[in-house]
Amino acid sequence: MLLADGAQEKGSYPPHRRLPNLTSLIMTSSNIAFWEEFLEHEILTKYPQARIILLRPSMTFLLMKNKNTEMVRSALPDFRGVTHIFLPVNDNRNVSLAEGGSHWSLLLVSIIDGVAFHYDSLDGANNAEAWEATKRLSNVLGKPLRFHYLADCPQQENGSDCGVFVCIMMRHLLVKRLLAVNAGEKISMSMAHKAIDSYGARKEMLKIIESLRKEGERRRVTPSNTPPRIE
């Protein structure tokens, strides 16, 4: 099930060993978790003033399925001072089914504005799930959130690119919107007229994975200047 990915992991980057299914039809929660870690390390580290959280799919799943608000709050990251949260949403309704569900969408919550923006590349197929995630997160935050489905979201042309769309929209909204403006500046969150090349995106992800693999190998074979320690 989605929870198999574990909690919001720390220090596990680069996790390229967790991506056996990237070239298959539908991306898994592990694939999306890798992409979030990549964005954190390669982009968010350059903006230390940003208070943005990329919630892992496993944590979104926990948020949606566990009705114990206090337990969920203790498991999730500390949202105090956070301005925005990205949540990958899956339509899996069977908590006992590994990698269940058949569709991904993206929920972007602006805590400072009290709005949850839902981006769905399959004509709002996940609106019910995204609304549920919004209600649960509102309880955790102790703050009302208004749900807003953006009908002008780019649409996929097949039944397998939803996860790719989530990853590319996440990066676009993070880099071109949230990190591209000054604090307090108004910005449109619409994705209208944004073209998404899903095939090119898959190729880019595989290239990133291969680059990380080679870098990992290079580090393993490069002699260290630190003398070995004897215990």
TrEMBL record:
InterPro entries to which the protein is assigned, alphabetical: Nep1/2-like (IPR044613), Papain-like_cys_pep_sf (IPR038765), Peptidase_C48_C (IPR003653)
Molecular function via GO: cysteine-type peptidase activity; deNEDDylase activity
Domain Ubiquitin-like protease family profile positions: 1-173
Highest rank taxon of the organism: Eukaryota
Alphabetical GO biological process terms: protein deneddylation; proteolysis
Keywords: Hydrolase, Protease, Thiol protease
Stored Pfam families: Peptidase_C48 (PF02902)
Family: Belongs to the peptidase C48 family.
Full protein name: Ubiquitin-like protease family profile domain-containing protein
Organism: Diatrype stigma
